[in-house]
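User: Can you model how adenosine-5'-triphosphate sits in this protein?
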Amino acid sequence: MNVLILGAGQLARMMSLASKPLNIQVRAYDVGANSVVDPLNPEVSYGDLNSGIAFANVITAEFEHITHDVLAQCEASGKLKPSSRAIKTGGDRRLEKALLDKAGADNAKHQIIENKADFDHALQTLALPLILKSALEGYDGKGQWRLKETDQADEIWADIEAFFHGSKSTVKQAVIAEQMVSFEREVSLVGMRDIKGNTKVYPLTENHHTDGVLTVSIALNDNAALQAQAQQMFDSIANTLDYVGVLAIEFFQVGDQLLVNEIAPRVHNSGHWTQQGADTCQFENHMRAVCGLPLGSGELVRPTAMINILGEDSVPNAILDIPSVSLHWYGKTKRAGRKMGHINLSAATNQALFERLEKVAMLLPAQAFSDIQEYAQKLVNKG
Ligand code: ATP
Ligand code: MG
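Assistant: Here's the modeled complex, given as structure tokens:
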């Protein structure tokens, strides 16, 4: 079986690694360079998109911001899974909100803004504070504005207008104004759906962000009611999209209620812990799903956490001295804030995991992992 992945970053790399034991051959399409490469060795090039499509039995994606002409060309081959509709929905917040409404998945009160009149209307009808998010090309908190007071409105509108003018997208840009949700915590659910429509999910993870970027995810499996709520929304969204593959849903938890923040039609950073904490990791399960194989279990084998390594190309080797700690590098060149790798750590109980997380955090350089020690301490004290 041969699979072409649209996108040649760390997610393609980890899908390729997980595919080796299944004898699935993976190549990745570097969209920017219009070149098909080996995701484990990107210097090796196999030609352009046409040669990648010819090589593949199945085509899938590691990210949702793919130009529509590339998606159309892949879909025309009959090999694309999930569908271009699903990928586009993850890449355009307008389509995403429409999907959530159709699937009956609760989310923040919002309005689409394409011009000044829409902007003024949103200010009149939605309660402040607002978060405004670009409809297209948003990731890791980029293309977002926070409007807390009405006197910021002119400045923010000028910024958004400039953003519209600067857009290189062939699709009309817009922003979504969303009411700020005052949530207790952010959680996400990673799950998968096979070609027959069977679904499985991993346990919810608690996600900790630093300056708007995910830094720690913890899989705990300690709240059956919340898990059932998340799974129901997963099934509804995945079935509405007739989805095939791994799909992630980010939520805000407000009391015992989940509101969907956004979906990602692909393997997800908050699912990297599955490499050590589940029988079958998200990368293998995505490949199984798109290749028509049965799905592996999403059950938690042991409490597991993940720490993102951002902008650093080394960490103290001493962390590997701690039991059940593993290190995953992506082979990328160092750049400020760039996702360079991650650390997975597991333990027999939740409390032992919190203590181990604190131990690892103490060994990491404080300036690059600024608030992780504090977060770990809080978890230890809370128990
Ligand atoms: P990523 O790629 O990291 O998922 P993104 O650019 O796609 O980020 P969002 O996930 O929509 O953007 O928002 C980034 C973060 O901003 C969220 O994780 C959350 O902390 C905060 N945020 C977003 N929307 C809201 C909201 N309506 N209310 C409160 N906080 C929000
Ligand atoms: Mg997000």
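A couple of observations from the model: The two ends are 46 Å apart (CA to CA). The chain has three domains: 2-80, 109-179, 185-382.
User: Helpful, thanks.
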